[in-house]
Amino acid sequence: MRNVLLIARREYLEQVRGRAFKMTTFGVPAIFALIVGVGYLSTLGLGANRHVAIASNDPALAAQIQRKLTSDKAAKAKVIVYAPVTPDDRARLVSAIKAGSLDGLLWVLTAKGEVPTATYMSQSAGDFITSARIQSALNEAILDVQLTGGGMKQVAADALIEGTSIVTYQVKKDGSILKTSAEASFWKGYVMAILLSMTTMIYGMNVARSIIQEKTSRIFEVMLSIAKPSDMLAGKLIGVGAVGLTQIAIWLVAAAAILISPFASAVLTGQFAVHITWAEALLFPVYFLLGYLLYSSLFAGLAATCETEQELQMYMPLAAAPTWLSFALIMLVINDSNSVWSIAASFFPPTAPVIMFLRMAAEIPPFWQFAVSIGLLVISIWGVLWFSARLYRIGILMYGKRATVPELLRWLRYS
Question: Which H or E run contains 106?
């Protein structure tokens, strides 16, 4: 056990003290904070302070469009109405746009019993925010005119056009009712699944690369004089796993700081509000460790059979296939987290960590399903470790000989 801890300590300190660890651990949160801040600041004032003209042969409709545009406080638009208009007015207003004294012109013509026709002209073809505001104001104004023309009061017409939003709630197993958002649940599960799969794959690859580098430098021959192969493999898994947990803990603290900032809180509100439950917070490190141990032990066995890092890289698409399968099922799992396919995928060890978090985002599964999922993962890890340790014991000292399938079977018998 002492050798295992010594090797784990060496692996941990070697990576934590490295420049790459420091840059990714502190650089990634800094970059995301910068992206959130720049994204928030860049949206301030977009499409605002526009000088727009509304020209129509229907004064009532033009006035309603003006009212809709000026009531939007974020737009801060200056709207001038020309109604009724003539073709000569059109040429004069287009000249004003060309001269820059006018930002845009909405030309609306109505005919009795027909839907109004409209065109919008401006110098900028990319100001989609202003175009969207004008489109919305036009549609709402047309409905307003029709409703008020039929005798409905203006306040009632505005309320009818605004519509009614549906507030969604989730009835939990214990009978409690919790306010939820399908979009927020989807993105929460998606982000946590990406974080889980990305970190397990990255640190599993770190174990494999470490084995390849030490194998090619022949440092194993020195280390084997004081430690057993099984101790070396266990030490690597523990050390690199501790590095992963350290990095994720720092990222989570940084993410919490970013999420409570004014920039992020302005976006993550309403239907995009994200809530992390205690079950998700407690199970994330559990599934990270189990997923990491499963993939890293698999990668360790693969690395012991490879001669170079390039050869190892060729096996990576096969190793990443379960992760791709997990994300291929994302829509099915989020929409029906209790379907047969969702439950089966959460029991299948290679996909269990990701699928379980996708299911938890929609609805917390029963306790027995967590027990079965974790139990199968533990059994799978034991089996893969047993297999990989035997390949590792022989493979780390094999040089210049390609590991074919018959050769691997001989290694298993030797060990």
Answer: strand 104-109
Residue with the two structure tokens 């299948």: 348
Mode of pairing for the β-strands spanning 168-171 and 177-180:
antiparallel
Give the pLDDT mean for 256-284. 64
Tens of pLDDT, residue by residue over 78-111, are: 888 888 887 778 888 888 888 888 888 888 888 8
Domains of the chain in sequence order: 51-162 (3.40.190), 180-414 (no CATH)
How far, in whole angstroms, is CA 270 from its chain's centroid?
18
The two structure tokens encoding residue 93 = 């207003």
Q: Which of the pair, 211 or 142, is modelled with greater confidence?
A: 142
Please state, in angstroms and rounded to a whole number, the distance separating the CA atoms of residues 305 and 270. 52
Spatial distance between the Cα atoms of 60 and 88, rounded to a whole number of angstroms: 21
Question: What does the alpha-carbon distance between residue 217 and residue 108 come to, in Å, rounded to a whole number?
Answer: 77
Number of neighbouring beta carbons within 10 Å of residue 167: 9
CA angle 110, 114, 116 (to 5 degrees): 40
Supply the DSSP string of 171-231, one letter for each residue.
E-TTS-EEEE-HHHHHHHHHHHHHHHHHHHHHHHHHHHHHHHHHHHTTHHHHHTTTS-HHH
Residue 233 predicted with pLDDT over 70: yes
> One-letter amino acid identity for 185?
S
Spatial contact of 394 and 401, defined as CB atoms under 8 Å apart: no
Tracing tokens 């003539």 back to the chain, one arrives at 86
170: left (phi over 0), alpha (psi -120 to 50) or beta: beta
Specify the 3-state DSSP secondary structure of 8.
helix
Which phi and psi angles does 48 have, rounded to 5°? -100, 165
Place of tokens 């994300």: 327
CA-CA distances (angstroms) from residue 86 to 105, 121, 380? 14, 17, 79
Residue type, 261: S
Is residue 386 within 8 A of residue 415, CB to CB? The reply is: no
Place of tokens 């002492």: 2
Contacts of 197 (CB under 8 A, 6+ apart): 291, 323, 326, 327, 353, 354
Burial class (CB in 10 A: 0-12, 13-18, 19+), 182: middle
Buried b (16+ CB within 10 A) or exposed e, 286-306: ebbbbbbbbbbbbbbbbbbbb
